[in-house]
Amino acid sequence: MDLKVINAAGEAQAAVAGSDALFAREFNEALVHQVVTAYFANARSGNRAQKGRDNVSHSTKKPWKQKGTGRARAGMSSSPLWRGGGRAFPNSPDENFSQKVNRKMFRAGIATILSQLVREERLVVVESFTAETPKTKAFALQLAAMQLDSVLIITKELDENLYLASRNLAHVLVLEPSQADPVSLVRYKKVVITREALQAFEELYA
Q: According to the UniProt entry, which residue ranges have a biased composition of type Basic residues (predicted)?
């Protein structure tokens, strides 16, 4: 599979060959959905807590007598039917939302996403990607010259200047190949991979 290559000015260069196993895979919507959903689920901390009817502050006194008032029977103000009452099925703070995705499925999901990015012309390769200074303004001008606004940049190694220059840009994320996740790959309009990172990607997932 030939991958599009651009230079520092955003101009197209000679294409580079990529692994068919990684960049020419058929799209599998169900697999991508499962991988992305599992990633979001595994990121949840599960620390939310709600009070049941035994935890809320309430009186045990019967609000009114059983018969003769014309109102429905009531025993305690902690009833889930009442305002301020406890939840019927409260969430516990140790709830586990994790979903298991085996290694083979995860790799196939990453390859499927990368292949679709290539088909949509959202993935490009560059020779290298560096920042001369840790200045956000200069880095933003560099991205504008390459006609990139919402972009995921994947480099072999994340140097300090590149990290400092990019961290304050809301629509820019810089990662190493081992840190790439399915959500980041689909979230940004463009994915830029350096040649060295491309080789590392193929070693990891191909």
A: 59-70
